[in-house]
């Protein structure tokens, strides 16, 4: 036993909160066995500092800054989660300000194109502007006054097979026409007494980042091709569709792509395409055997009423092909079928007084460039196709632009 004063920690109540006391003598008994301190020790015990009891737990004022283990763990978790959120939220949900800065940034060339487009839209619409500027061109022979849609009361060239005619397709054509309640042009596309502006929206990668969407939506007739998407690309492509020119394998699969669509027009490349159209209109499914003859799975339902479907007159494709065979354009030998894009331009010349193009022009000099605005396939993929003469089409469209018959909004021709 030691007589001088000694300071040490003891456990209050065996396992309870530690306390520091100053004793003159030590008890010979262990306080953790439940016994009290010796009387003399208890009398002189002077606990420092003062303790307070809160909610049944003894706390030391000098240690109130620190948390219990469970509180500390909870606080750490909240801090950790908060840190992650601070980092991750801006990445996945960029602020409107950041998005605005990104969207508003424009290359100087793009700003020039936008200004030219705005100036064009603000100018007066002059009747027969396109046809008047088309006539001086040598390629214009046969491109004037072509019927646009197949009608029961107009003769159809039977001496050529699809897509240049409808020879051998008499029966499926009759069934398809019988399912169409309205022949010819719908009232919204008739030109009598009005001047109309058309725009043909191509699928070219040059449209990516163009910010032309709000301009495109201002046209009277907006023509799109195959499955080129609108949803998610409205800033560059606009949101409305007047005519979507398709063949069965190229029809959009998503029902959302047919919203804000006035008409779907079928380009017939084989007799079976007419069977497909009848099936889509009447909601009667094609046979399994018929489906096997398509080179790609085709959509079985298009959420439009029968009056919103038409059949492209094969003379549109035929006359476009003839124009491309001009010796100043032809780059390949053989029977090259014009693309839907070139055919759509010729169709637009029949429907409208002013025609503009956006998303046209394959730049084969830059094989690494984006082929389509909606995917990452590169330009050199076009070298593998042998059906179309895209070089001849570019020269043909470039002549139309130079003559003032059409306007190229994206400047790639």
UniProtKB/TrEMBL annotation:
The EC number(s) this enzyme carries: 2.4.3.9
- GO cellular component: a single term: Golgi membrane
Q: What is its main location?
A: Golgi
Which Gene3D superfamilies does the record associate with it?
Glycosyl transferase family 29 (3.90.1480.20)
**One Gene Ontology term of the molecular function aspect:** lactosylceramide alpha-2,3-sialyltransferase activity
Pfam families named in the record: Glyco_transf_29 (PF00777)
Location of the protein in the cell: Golgi apparatus membrane
Topology with regard to the membrane? Answer: Single-pass type II membrane protein
GO terms of biological process kind: lipid metabolic process
What are the transmembrane regions? 73-93
Record keywords: Disulfide bond, Glycoprotein, Glycosyltransferase, Golgi apparatus, Lipid metabolism, Membrane, Signal-anchor, Transferase, Transmembrane, Transmembrane helix
| The UniProt record lists the keyword Transport | no
Show the catalytic activity: a beta-D-Gal-(1<->1')-ceramide + CMP-N-acetyl-beta-neuraminate = N-acetyl-alpha-neuraminosyl-(2->3)-beta-D-galactosyl-(1<->1')-ceramide + CMP + H(+); ganglioside GA2 (d18:1(4E)/18:0) + CMP-N-acetyl-beta-neuraminate = ganglioside GM2 (d18:1(4E)/18:0) + CMP + H(+); a beta-D-Gal-(1->4)-beta-D-Glc-(1<->1)-Cer(d18:1(4E)) + CMP-N-acetyl-beta-neuraminate = a ganglioside GM3 (d18:1(4E)) + CMP + H(+); ganglioside GA1 (d18:1(4E)/18:0) + CMP-N-acetyl-beta-neuraminate = ganglioside GM1 (d18:1(4E)/18:0) + CMP + H(+)
Protein purpose: Transfers the sialyl group (N-acetyl-alpha-neuraminyl or NeuAc) from CMP-NeuAc to the non-reducing terminal galactose (Gal) of glycosphingolipids forming gangliosides (important molecules involved in the regulation of multiple cellular processes, including cell proliferation and differentiation, apoptosis, embryogenesis, development, and oncogenesis).
- Similarity comment: Belongs to the glycosyltransferase 29 family.
* Protein name, as recorded: Lactosylceramide alpha-2,3-sialyltransferase
What organism is the protein native to?
Answer: Channa striata
Its taxonomic path starts at:
Eukaryota, Metazoa, Chordata, Craniata, Vertebrata
